[in-house]
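Allow me, if you will, to draw on your knowledge of protein folds for a short while. I have a record of one protein: its chain in single-letter code and its fold written as discrete structure tokens. Could you please explain, in whatever detail you think fit, how the structure tokens follow from the sequence? The record follows directly beneath this note:
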Amino acid sequence: MSDAIVLASGSPFRRKMLEDAGLEIEVEKPQIDERAVEAAVANSGVGPEDLALILAEAKALEVSQDRPGALVIGTDQTLSLGDEVLHKPRDMEEARRRLLALSGRTHQLNSAVVLMRDGEVLWRHVGVARLTMRELDPGFIGRHLSHVGEKALSSVGAYQIEGEGIQLFETIEGDHFTIVGMPLLPLLAKLREMQAIDG
């Protein structure tokens, strides 16, 4: 259990998740262009779950190349509404339109995690959650976004389920950690199996 565990992510939520679970990790934000990776597989029949895995693997690979011997955790999450993959809103107007589009509908969060060492994928997993928003009044959406502010721009759905965003939902099927950004329980189980953490 002496090898470094490196989280290839700039997400404070993912970092906190692992640290709260008692893991000693290092963090290195990968320098990849996610939209370029996505464009490279566009029109190839890759679904939202596979896209999340491809992005997580690209992040892990970028960091793994600079960290010989380290166990690198790559993660990514896609939000799919039917076959459409949505991205983080660029501004508050796009966040407003995003919430209007999700209102009264069920969308899927696909949270991928990849373990890699020296550029070799050791394990990959995708956790899936299905979330149904209640019917949202446009006036409420405006008031909600005004209250939460720029935080709405930090997630693909324009909400933080761990905060006030919970008020937007009617039903949720899936693991809390998967929704917040990483399928933590399967990851911890794999790290114990690999004897990378005590267990």
About this structure: DSSP finds seven helices and seven strands in the chain. The longest strand covers residues 120-133. The radius of gyration is 17 Å.
